[in-house]
């Protein structure tokens, strides 16, 4: 059995314990915690490790820096697109789904602390947790559509479960960043904290659940998740193929170039 206190995933993700609470921290603050494939793999490893540690009875996921995560590293996406075979790209596109399942399947209750910007994959990480605490100045969204991308990582059902169909469409189809207060009213965020205090509030939430009977707690969590996700798992297997389709579009390439140039994209539907 690996002790979470000894587990370290430098430089991008770390895992340590504070009493009976496991703390997973994203540590790529200089890049606004943009998610590389290496970072995602380290997060998967951290999730599996902490889930297997019976001394840990609740988990906090947090991030260093001013922003929780701006999602996938677009520079890496562009480079990989130019170098990979279609077969390799399809295999690699499954990584996000593995991350979501590894976070969802952490046995212990999970609390995510969100500050600053959370978008795309960063918001997906939060959605895979049981509870979400956000600072009052946080802005949260799912921006893939603005890059001519579909939402992948098999994440769609998480948003529908948390928000309902109309709000999930508004969040995902608009690509906008929403104030934390709005998402609290919608039910995505569980508590608003003052700026700089999301991690402390998340630890307080985690301690509440950590001190309850762990076997019953973890059985209840697993049952609720399995019920809520039963349909999603049967239909979301294709979203990485949808990503491969959108990644071949002219609009995707134009959106990447426009993002780098900080200008509006000229979209054609091709």
Give helix and strand order, one letter per element, not per position. EEHEHHHEEHEEHHEHEHHHH
| CATH class membership | Alpha Beta
Please estimate the helix content. Answer: 40-55%
Rounded to an integer in angstroms, the radius of gyration calculated over CA atoms is: 18 Å
Describe what this molecule looks like in 3D.
The longest helix is centred in the C-terminal third of the chain and has 22 residues, at 214-235. Helix 6 (156-163) crosses helix 7 and helix 6 packs across helix 10. The relative contact order is 0.13. The chain has one domain (4-197, 209-261): 2-enoyl-CoA Hydratase, Chain A, domain 1 (Alpha-Beta Complex), CATH 3.90.226.10. The protein has helices at residues 37-51, 74-83, 86-92, 95-104, 121-128, 156-163, 165-174, 180-186, 198-210, 214-235, 239-246, 250-261; strands at 13-18, 21-26, 58-63, 110-114, 117-119, 131-135, 139-141, 177-179, 191-193. With 270 residues, the protein is an alpha/beta fold. Mean pLDDT is 91; it is low at 1-9. Strands 1-2-3-4-6-9 form a six-stranded mixed sheet, sandwiched between helices. The chain has twelve helices and nine strands.
Characteristic terms for this protein:
270 residues, alpha/beta, 2-enoyl-CoA Hydratase, Chain A, domain 1, 12 helices, 9 strands, 48% helix, 15% strand, disordered N terminus
Brief characterization of the structure:
Helices cover 48% and strands 15% of the residues. The protein has helices at 37-51, 74-83, 86-92, 95-104, 121-128, 156-163, 165-174, 180-186, 198-210, 214-235, 239-246, 250-261, and strands at residues 13-18, 21-26, 58-63, 110-114, 117-119, 131-135, 139-141, 177-179, 191-193. β1 and β2 (21-26) form a beta hairpin.
């Amino acid at each position: 059995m690996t002790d979470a206190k000894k587990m370290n995933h430098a430089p991008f993700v770390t895992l340590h314990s504070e009493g009976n609470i496991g703390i997973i921290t994203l540590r790529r603050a200089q890049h606004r915690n943009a998610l590389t494939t290496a970072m995602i793999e380290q997060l998967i490893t951290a999730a599996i490790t902490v889930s297997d540690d019976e001394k840990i009875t609740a988990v906090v996921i947090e991030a260093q820096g001013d922003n929780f995560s701006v999602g996938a590293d677009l520079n890496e996406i562009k480079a990989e697109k130019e170098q990979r075979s279609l077969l390799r790209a399809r295999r690699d596109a499954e990584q996000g789904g593995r991350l979501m399942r590894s976070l969802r399947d952490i046995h212990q209750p999970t609390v995510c602390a969100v500050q600053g910007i959370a978008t795309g994959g960063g918001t997906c990480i939060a959605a895979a947790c049981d509870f979400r605490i956000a600072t009052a100045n946080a802005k949260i969204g799912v921006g893939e559509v603005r890059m001519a991308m579909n939402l992948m990582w098999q994440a769609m059902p998480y948003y529908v479960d948390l928000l309902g169909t109309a709000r999930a469409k508004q969040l995902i189809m608009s690509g906008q960043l929403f104030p934390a207060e709005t998402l609290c009213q919608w039910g995505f965020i569980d508590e608003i904290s003052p700026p700089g205090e999301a991690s402390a509030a998340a630890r307080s939430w985690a301690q509440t659940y950590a001190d309850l009977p762990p076997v019953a707690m973890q059985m209840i969590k697993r049952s609720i998740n399995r019920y809520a996700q039963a349909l999603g798992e049967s239909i979301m297997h294709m979203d990485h193929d949808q990503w491969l389709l959108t990644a071949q579009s002219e609009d995707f390439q134009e959106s990447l170039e426009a993002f780098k140039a900080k200008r509006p994209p000229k979209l054609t539907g091709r």
